[in-house]
């Protein structure tokens, strides 16, 4: 993938790819959501591809560096803990998993089984990211565990410390 120049246009907190060959390459690797003639990348995919695949992001035909993309995204959204979430995304993606946004299910991310493509497998984990100094409400965790079980997925809580080290907790419900 690194031999092909990847170019996308920033639109709010998303990046839009219109080049057909680039779309095909990115879809094959598990990136983005395909629409008719374009591909939409979420903010984590965009930053990851800028860092690891030399993707160029344009805004009004001007090439933006990674820090400018992050600043623009923060200006247009209320994305709490963007960089904490990005570090979790990056760590999981670097391990070879396909990781996608989980917002439509009420989670930060959904993760597919290692080595599987989205069309070939069901979500294995749903994941929420939390900085270490934020208090978690037990009823929120209990609700998320039940929602994950309803999706036939495991619920994982990623706690990110001040040095951006990540600890993962598999949270489950026991019936007595």
Would you kindly provide a written description of the structure presented here, covering whatever features stand out?
This protein has 176 residues and is an alpha+beta fold. The chain folds into 2 domains: 7-76, MutS, DNA mismatch repair protein, domain I (3-Layer(aba) Sandwich); 82-171, Trna Endonuclease, Chain: A, domain 1, CATH 3.40.1350.10. It is built from 5 helices and 11 strands; from the N terminus they run ββαββαββααβββαββ. It has helices at 20-28, 43-52, 66-76, 82-94, 138-150; strands at 7-11, 14-17, 33-34, 39-41, 56-59, 62-64, 99-101, 109-111, 125-131, 154-160, 166-171. Strands 3-4-2-1-5-6 form a 6-stranded mixed sheet. Helix 2 (43-52) runs antiparallel to helix 3 and helix 2 packs across helix 4. The longest helix has 13 residues, at 82-94. The protein is globular. The N and C termini lie far apart (50 Å).
Keywords:
MutS, DNA mismatch repair protein, domain I; about 180 residues; six-stranded mixed sheet; globular; alpha+beta; five-stranded mixed sheet; single chain; 2 domains
